[in-house]
What does this fold into?
Amino acid sequence: MLALKRRIVVLLITFILLVTGGAGLTAVGTDFMPDSDEGLFVIEVELDHGTNLARTQETVEEIEDLLEDYDEVEHYLSTIGSTAKWEVCLLILTLPRLS
It folds into this structure.
């Protein structure tokens, strides 16, 4: 009830808080997800149902051959698994970026 009796004071305080919050936002910034380079990325490949393991291995080797061409790729790890179809996951670690 006190707020209803002192509407002008409540509105003034609300306005001051709004302005202060806006000023703080401009000082801090609004990057909720800052740019980052973790030096890591993943390649996931799904092959058609019925693809045999040898063809899956060939696909992985083709991708690994492409990765070998990049000096930035320091290490990579390939895994092959099966649920209803063959799935391939490659985890690639890159060298740190020079400034």
Q: What stands out?
A: The longest helix spans residues 7-28.
